[in-house]
Amino acid sequence: MKKCRITVLKRHFDEELAKEYGCKGIGKCPMLKEGDVFYADYAKPEGFCDEAWKAIYQYVFAISHGSGVFYYRDWIEKPGVAICSCNDGLRPVIFKIEATEEESVINYTPNKD
Fold this sequence. Notes:
By secondary structure, this protein is of the alpha+beta class. About 20% of the residues lie in helices and about 25% in strands. The longest helix is centred in the middle third of the chain and has 15 residues, at about 50-65.
């Protein structure tokens, strides 16, 4: 298993929807910023948003296990890459997930009951 690099590409903010549904003072995602980079494999990286992880972890898992392309080659042309977003409908964050050559290391002792 290899580590994946997760790069924050963009943070969006839907002002129209936020005016109708958002809390007062809501803006772009306060947890992440463009250019942030995280490395992950089987576990959420430290400092990464829990909700964003739930939305993208399946792509991280697939790429870290060697998946080359997704969805019958009608989505992303480049093997080992996925462009995904978190599930925040008012202020979604767009991520680039890509394979690296760095081997993953399990940092826990598996229970062998």
